[in-house]
Design brief:
- This protein has 2 domains: 2-44, no CATH class; 57-101, no CATH class.
- The chain has helices spanning 2-6, 20-27, 35-44, 57-67, 75-83, 89-101.
- α2 (20-27) packs across α3 (35-44) and α4 (57-67) packs across α6 (89-101).
- The chain contains 6 helices and no strands.
- 53% of the residues lie in helices and 0% in strands.
Length: 106
C-alpha cells in the first residue's frame, strides 16, 4: 500500500475531503484490497458513519437472522434495509457484526 501511494498509483491527498466512493475507488487499485476491505478502512480508520457493506457475509447472515428469512438477503433487500438507517449505517453495521461475533447468529 505504501509503495502504491509513494509511486502515485493511489492518491490519498486530502483523504478527509473525499467521498466514501472516491476513497474506495483509490484503495481498490491495490492488489488484495477489495470493496469490502476498503469499507472496513472507512469505518475503522476514518470513522465514517454512513457505511454499510452490501457484500459482507456477516452482515448478510445477521440480516437473514433478524428477519427470519430462509435465504441470504439479496442486494435490493439489503439496500432497502440499510436506507432506513442513513446517515448512520455504520452504527447498524457494528450492531449486526456484534451479533455474529457473539455467536448469536451462525
Amino acid at each position: 500500500m505504501l509503495k502504491k501511494i509513494k509511486d502515485g498509483v493511489v492518491n490519498i491527498d486530502n483523504i478527509d475531503s473525499l467521498t466514501d466512493e472516491e476513497i474506495i475507488k483509490e484503495l481498490i487499485k491495490v492488489k488484495g484490497i477489495n470493496k469490502c476491505t476498503a469499507e472496513m478502512f472507512l469505518i475503522f480508520s476514518l470513522g465514517r458513519m454512513d457505511v454499510f457493506s452490501l457484500q459482507n457475509l456477516g452482515i448478510k447472515k445477521a440480516v437473514q437472522w433478524l428477519y427470519i428469512i430462509p435465504e441470504l438477503p439479496n442486494r435490493e433487500f439489503l439496500i432497502n434495509f440499510s436506507d432506513n438507517f442513513k446517515p448512520y449505517r455504520t452504527v447498524v453495521t457494528l450492531y449486526l457484526w456484534g451479533g455474529t461475533n457473539k455467536v448469536i447468529i451462525k
